[in-house]
Amino acid sequence: MGTNVIYPPDPLPAVPNVSGAIRQALLHPVGSEPLPELLKPGMRLTIAFDDISLPLPPMQTPDIRGRVIEQVLELAARAGVEDVRLIVANSLHRRMTPGEIKRAVGERVYRSFYPDALTNHDAEDPAGLVHVGQTDRGEDVEINRRAAESDLLVYVNINLVAMDGGHKSVPVGLASYRSLRHHHNVHTMLNSQSFMDPRPGHSAIHDSCARMGELLSEHLRISTIETTLNNNTFPAPFDFMNKREWEWSLKDQASYLAGKRANDRAPAWIRREIFRRIASPYGLTGVHAGETAAVHERTLANLHRQQLTEVNGQVDVMVVGLPYICPYNVNSIMNPILVQCLGLGYLFNMYVNKPVVRPGGVMILHHPVPWEFNQLHHPSYVDFFDEVLAETTDPAAIEAKFEAQYAQDPWYVHLYRNSYAYHGVHPFYMWYWGAHAMDYLGDVIFVGANRKAVARMGFRTASTFADALEMASETVGGSPRISYLHTPPLTLAEVR
Amino acid sequence: MAKTVLDEVREVARGWRWTRRPLTPRTAERWAPATKPRVFPTSWARTRPAKAVREAILRYGFRPVVWTETDPTVEGLDNLEGLAGPVMFIANHASHMDTPLILCSLPKEWRERTAVAAAADYFFDVWWRAASTALVFNTFPIERTGGQRATNTARQLVQDGWNLVVYPEGTRSRDGWVARLRHGASRLSIEYGLPVVPIAIRGTYAAMPRGRSWPVRGRVPISVRFGPALRVEPEEDFRSFSKRIQQELARLWDEDATDWYHSLRREAEGRTPALTGPAGPRWRRVWESSRPLPRRGAPRVWRV
User: What is the CATH number of the domain that holds B193?
Assistant: First the structure.
C-alpha cells in the first residue's frame, strides 16, 4: 500500500515593485487601449471588485484590490471623471461590513466614496438591476443597473484559483438570482469537470458564463484587471504550514507542537478568533489589464505557474485535510454544509485533466464538522440543514423541490438585503458544488467528525484514519493506492 | 540668623548659569574674539543601548500619554511599503507634539532607523536639553541660519542610512497654518537622491500650540497622514522640488480635510486650497486652526 503526497509548489518570487507593475498593466493593457484613453470628463465610471470571499485567508494590508483601485482612480481624477461608483461584486453572498470594505479598498478610497458611492451589490433590488438580454441558449443576463449603464466598467479581481475570474467575474459577481440560476444548478455542476479547468468544453459553468460575458461585452465596455498571488499563505508563527514537514526546522517543529496543543485545548471561539486574525503575506505574481478573455488567459498561465503539480495516474483513495476557512466563512463559522462544499466542491475539483481519485473511489476528509452555524451570516443554512437535508441529500431532488421556495422567501431576501446574511438560495448552491463529487465517488468518509452532522449529509464517519481506511476497503479493496492532497497552500493536480 | 548649608546651596544654585548664556556682556560682544562654534555630539544617542532606552520611552511612555491625552488617527502608512531607506520625512510643524506623534506612528523597523532634525539654537543650547532630546527623539542639531555647516550632521546620518524627519518651515507655526518651506531639505534630498515622504499633521495646533507644555483637555482629535514618496525628477532643481513638496503637502492636507479622490480632482484642476489659511487678520487663521477636527470612526455606543 503506497501513499502519494501531493505538495503545493514553493511560492513564486513576488513582483518587487507592485505599484510599477499595476501602472504598467494599466498603461499597456492586452486587447484594449490604455486606460487613460478610456477615461473622459463627464463619463460614468463604475469599478467593481471581488468581495470578501477572496483571497483566502485575507491578505495583509494593503490589499491588492485597494492598490489597483487607487491607481485607476488616480488616472480618473486626472482625466476629470466626476461620476464614479464602486460596487462590491458580492452576488448572492452576504454584504461586506464597512470595516471589511475599508480593509479591502484602503482608507483613502473608503473615505472618498463610502457610503454613497461605494456600495454592496444588491441582487434583490428590482430598481437596481437591468435585464441586458438572453444568450443564444436562452440564458437571462441580468446584472447591476449602474454597472450595465456605465460608460466603462472596470472589474478588479483576485484570481486565487483557476475557477475565478475571466467571464465569471461580471456575469456572476454583479448578477441576480434570475441570471445565476442558469449556471448555478445541478445539471451544470455535473457537467463541469472540473470547475478548475475553465477551457471551453471542460466546465459547463464557465461555458455559460462565457456566453453571458460575450453578450455583456456587446452592450458594455468592460476593462478587466486580474491579479494573481503566490503561495506564501501563512505568516509567522504559522509559517511552518507553508513548508513540507521534512523541511521543518526545530523552531517550526516547536511552533507546530505548541500550535497543535493550543488548538486542541482552546475553546472553539478562541480558536476561531486566532485563525480569523491570520492575514496572509501573499506576494503579487502578476497583474494584467484589458479585454476580459485575453487578460484571463495570461492570468491562468500565471496561476498554473504557481499551483500546478504533476501527478501520475489516478488513485483509489484521496485524502484531504480541510482548512479552517472557505470562501463563505470569512469572519464566520464553517458550518457542515460549507465543510461539504469545501471538501467535495472545491478540493475534490482541484485538478485538471481528470480527478486525483478514480471513478468509484473513496474520499477521506479530516474535519471535526461541528454542528454549528452563524445565525447572522447563514440563516438559510440552518433551515436547509434541518429541513431539506433531513428529507433528502440528492442534489437534483433538492433543486426540484426546495430551491424556488428558499430563493424567494421574503424573510431571507430581507436579511440578504438589510443584514449580513447570505441569500436564501446560497446553501443550495453549496450543495450543488459537491454534486459532481457525490456522483463520481464510491464513498465519502469524514475522520474525527460529529457523527450526527455527517450522517445528516449522507456521509460516513470514522474515529481514526486507520478506521477510515478499513471502511474504505469495503469499496476499493484492501490494498488501495492513496493520494493525500496537502493543502493549504493551494495546489492544482495535473493528473496524467 | 546663620545660613544653613542648604540655604547656601540654594543661593549658589540661583546664580548658576543654567543656560549656555554667553559670558560676554551684550555691549561688549563687538570686541569679543570670535569663538569656534561647537556641535553637540549626538552619535552616542544612536548606539544600541540608547536605541533600546528610546524605544522603551517612546513605546511605553510617550505613546500611551499622547494616545490617551489626544485622539490621533494615523493613515497612509501603506505608502512606506516597498520603500527602502533612507528617506526624508517632511512634515508641517505646529506643536512639540509633532515629533512624538510621528515617531510613535511609524512602524518599529522605521522608527528605530529615524533621526529628527532639531534647531541647534533651541534644542542644543544647553547640555541637558540637548542630551535629553537626543536620547528620547534621536534628534541632531541643524542650524537655522543655513549654510553648508547647517546640515553636516544630516549628511553624515544619511550616509549612515538613517531616515530623517525634517520640518522645513524651520519653526513651529504661529497660527496653525503652514509657512513657506525652506530649501535645505530639498537640497539634501537632491544631493543624496532621497525619497521624500510628506506627512500632513492636523489638529496639533488645537491640541497643544506654542506656549503649552501639555495637551488641552478633551482628547482633541489629531490626524497624521503619510503621503506617497516623492522623488526628484531629472532636470528638477531644489526650488521646483521644494514647490512640489509643498504642493503635495497641501494636497495631503486637503485629502485629510475632505477626501482622497476629490483632493486629486482639485489638484488636477489646480484648485488645491493653500496651506496658508484664510486671508485677513491673524486671528482668523488662529480661529480656524484652533477648531477641533471632526471625530472619525463609528460613534461610541453603550456596550451591554
Answer: 3.40.1130.10
Kindly determine whether residue B264 and residue A78, on different chains, have CB atoms separated by under 8 Å. yes
Residues of chain A with pLDDT under 50: none
Q: What is the spatial distance between Cα B95 and Cα B259, in angstroms, rounded to a whole number?
A: 24
H or E element in which residue B154 lies: helix B152-159
Residues 42-101 of A with CB under 8 A from B: 61-62, 73-74, 77-78, 80, 82, 84
- Kindly list the structural domains of chain A, giving each domain's residue range(s) and its CATH number in brackets, ordered by start: 11-229 (3.40.50.11440), 312-495 (3.90.226.30)
pLDDT of B19 higher than 90: no
B60-93 confidence digits (pLDDT tens) = 999 999 999 999 999 999 999 888 879 999 999 9
Task: Report ipTM (2 d.p.).
Answer: 0.77
Residue from B256, B262, B264 whose CB has the most chain A CBs within 10 Å, to mutate: B264
Indicate whether B248 belongs to any domain: yes
Q: Domain span at residue B100?
A: 43-289
Which of A105, A112, A116 best tests the B interface by mutation, with the highest count of B CBs <10 A? A112
Say if the Cβ atoms of B261 and A112 lie within 8 Å: yes
Could you give phi then psi for residue A484, rounded to 5 degrees?
-105, 120
**Model confidence, pTM:** 0.88
Provide the 8-state DSSP code for A315.
E
Residue from A330, A303, A298 nearest A229 by CA: A303
Query: What residues have CB less than 8 Å from A461, skipping those under 6 apart?
Result: A445, A446, A447, A449, A450, A451, A454, A455
